[in-house]
Amino acid sequence: MPAIVWDAIGEKKYELGVDHGVLAVVEGTTYGAPVAWNGLISVTESPSGAEANKNYADNIEYANILSAEEYGATIEAYTYPDEFKPCDGFAELVEGVTIGQQNRAKFGFSYRTKIGNDTEGQEHGYQIHMIYGAQASPSERAYNSVNDSPEINTLSWEITTTPIPVPGFKPTASLVLDSTVLGPEKIKIIEDALYGTEGETGTAAKFLLPNEIAALLNTTTPQG
Question: I want to staple 130 with a disulfide (CB 3.0 to 4.6 A). Which of 8, 24, 149, 175 is the partner?
Answer without folding.
Answer: 175
